[in-house]
Amino acid sequence: MIVVLVFATFLQAGPPRSTDAITRSVIVDRSGFQAVRVTFAPHAAATTGGEASDVVLVPIDAGLKADVGGTPAAWQPGLAILIPRGAPHRLSNPTSSPISFVSVRRLADAEIKAPPPPQTSGATVVRSADSKYVRATTVRVEPGGELRSVAAPRAGPSLFVLAGHADVRMTIGASVSDFPQQRAGTVWMFDAGTPFALANIGARPFEVVRISAPAEASR
What is the rounded CA–CA span in Å between residue 191 and residue 156? Predict the structure, then answer.
């Protein structure tokens, strides 16, 4: 089992195509999850009547307006917005600057098991939201803090979206690598059962959003 950084070569279910107003770039597409970096041009807007997949939006830039099921959703970099399958939603950019975010879909026909909760030191949960099929948790990792997961071969995968610029140390088994100056919107995916750790080796805290299947009890 390995961690997969960023790029996929085969699409399980293609996202909407890019337009002059909204550009989309696939980052990860595997194991039932699809992560896409989306950028709304100034004054661009999109309305969706409801998707067949659960969607998690991870704001990277401030300023976008989001409405889910007729209710405004707070748009704040680092705090994920969970849109259950079938819920209508609208996104719009009222500003004169482009705004980017990462959209993660759990594909509707994918069978995904819940991974074990990560062990933490120097890290706290900022927000967590569950639907029937998805759990999205924002974790703030202080300098020197760490998220760890033990090997669990029968568990499901975890996908992480970095919500702000950060200096990260990644451990996979006995392999340790430093990734300084990672930009907001970087995506990591750990395959089912992979032991890993993400540590903050920088001088400032960062926030990362973990997206996975929810625990069986919450379904």
Answer: 7
Distance CA 24, CA 45 (A): 14
The letter for the amino acid at 158 is S
Place of tokens 């399958």: 85
Given a contact cutoff of 8 angstroms between Cβ atoms, the answer to whether 71 and 140 are in contact is no
Helix (H) or strand (E) holding 122: strand 119-130
Residue with tokens 């390995």: 2
What's the Cα-to-Cα distance from 139 to each of 14, 30, 78, 102, 150, rounded to whole Å?
29, 23, 9, 16, 18
- Cα torsion 187, 51, 87, 53 to 10°: value is -50
- pLDDT tens string, the chain, 219 residues long: the values are 333 343 333 334 556 677 889 999 999 998 889 999 999 999 999 998 878 889 999 999 999 999 999 899 999 988 899 999 989 999 999 999 999 999 999 887 778 888 888 899 999 999 999 998 999 999 999 999 999 998 887 888 889 999 999 999 999 888 999 999 999 999 999 887 888 999 999 999 999 999 999 986 444
Segments making up each domain of the chain, as ranges: 7-106, 119-218
Domain 7-106 has CATH 3.40.50.300: no
Distance CA 8, CA 205 (A): 29
Q: What is the pTM of this model?
A: 0.87
Q: Does domain 119-218 have CATH number 3.30.457.10?
A: no
